[in-house]
Amino acid sequence: MSDLAIAPLAAAAPSKSRWRVMRAVAAKEWLELFRDRRLVWLCAFVVALMLAALAFGYVENARLLHERDAAAKADRDLWVGQSAKNPHAAAHFGQYAFKPLSPLALADPGVDAYVGSAVWLEAHKQNETQFKQARDGGVGARLGSLSLAFILQTIAPLIVVLMGFASFSGERESGTLKQLLSVGARPRDILAGKALALIGAIFALLTPAFVGAALALFFFVDRERLSLADQFIRLGALGAAYAAYLAGFAFLALGVSALARNSRAALVALLAFWLANSFLAPRLATDAARAFAPVPTWQEFRAGVAQDKAKTFGHDESHPAFIAFRDETLKKYGVSRIEDLPVSFRGLALRKDDEAGYEIFDRHFGALQSAFDRQDALRAAPGFLFPLLALRPISMAFAGVDSRSQFDFATSAEAHRRDIQNEVSDNIIHFAHDNSYVAGPELWRKIAAFAYRAPGAGFALDHSMLPIAALLGWLAFAGVFALFAARRLRPV
């Protein structure tokens, strides 16, 4: 359909359906997009790039999953293969808790490469996660790798800008816009038609990627560990978030094109915003979050834990807390000597010290996660102006690779460590009559292997309300801006 072919429909607009005008404008925009072979080939390249990133993510995730499963099995064999020994010595021998890989990490790897994949579970101590891929992979890994999320967050908006920057300015330069407005076509109807075309192109761009991700999920998800339905809900939420993100860029491109004097000015302005959104805003937001919500260094954090732990007695029988607990226990059982207790005092002391440590670890690790949450909130707050700041936390949350998902895993691993501690302490309390007591392999087998089940999509939604609100604010802001710009169009 040519530019002039819309004029009769525009002239008939007062008496005919507005939908016919919008549909005609959309059809014309679609035709022009397909006629521009540069855009067609560029979009085809981006689709191929997205599918390649998905394939790479699928292969990489399958490799990591195999490695972690093999490591978990080997570690379990080591645990149950221990010889007879004191149960407390077995607790110090320890075991690993390996984090299962989120299936949607094949689309968005999130923070997984930087936070580690396993926790060493040992007596009296809550450890941080270990085996960080970014550290083991050197500089190249730290710079990041190609992923579907990176393409959709950074490259796809650029494609939308290139498709939409000349929507109004190009017609103004050719004289078509003046003719349309002079015969009665309403600016908002023209805007709606162009928006339909541009958003339709966005969906055409997104569809292959998300269909590919859905197929990958179908083959990748272990039904015994995860709900396939929940993973598809997460994928649907990701699709909606990315659609809103790119639709906002479509409205922004249309608004700038409507206000700009020419196509060159529109392109420069849109590219400047794209650069600020993709590279400048994330850096500044991260620096601001660190300044206004600082977190302790690893040394400061561990020093704080150690300072509080010093108030507990540990293995120090001269510690005032130990003496107080000993006297309290003797009074409770109505005896004057430890040897007269009907249970093992050593086991009671170990359990008491562990319980004191649980409170300390919960307080310090909880405060650390709260600081991370504050940083995340500060980064996402300007998301209604720079939408990447809102989209990234949503994408990571629904992919199951954000800091909150990591904290949930770490909390589950710590709960398993406490189960081990309670089991061995109870065994000592009831069966250890002297320091020579040992337990056999039946106790090691009695302690179940670590089994982590990731929370459902509702967990991601609960912790994503602020960035979701910011992303919707961005879409609304861009839509209102485009409508405002379209209403300023005049025939002359």
Brief write-up:
This protein is an all-alpha fold and 492 residues long. The protein is 71% helix and 2% strand. The longest helix has 44 residues, at 37-80.
Textual characterization of the structure:
This protein has 492 residues and is mainly alpha-helical. The protein is built from 21 helices and three strands. It has helices spanning 7-11, 18-35, 37-80, 87-93, 112-115, 133-136, 138-142, 148-164, 169-174, 176-182, 187-220, 228-259, 263-292, 298-309, 320-333, 345-380, 388-399, 403-431, 441-446, 457-462, 465-487; strands spanning 95-98, 118-121, 129-130. Strands 1-2-3 form a three-stranded antiparallel β-sheet. A hairpin with a 7-residue loop joins strand 2 and strand 3. The two termini are 24 Å apart. The model is unreliable at 139-143 (pLDDT under 50).
Helix coverage percent: over 70%
- What's the average pLDDT? 89
Order of helices and strands: HHHHEHEEHHHHHHHHHHHHHHHH
What is the multimeric organization of the chains shown? Answer: single chain
Cross-sheet strand order for the largest sheet? 1-2-3
Q: For the terminal residues, how far apart are their CA atoms?
A: 24 Å
What's the overall geometry?
elongated
Radius of gyration: 30 Å
Low-confidence stretches: 139-143
Could you give a short account of the major beta sheet?
Answer: 3 strands, antiparallel
- Compute the number of strand runs: 3
The proportion of residues in beta strands is under 5%
User: Would you tell me the structural class of the helices and strands?
Assistant: mainly alpha
Q: Total helix count?
A: 21
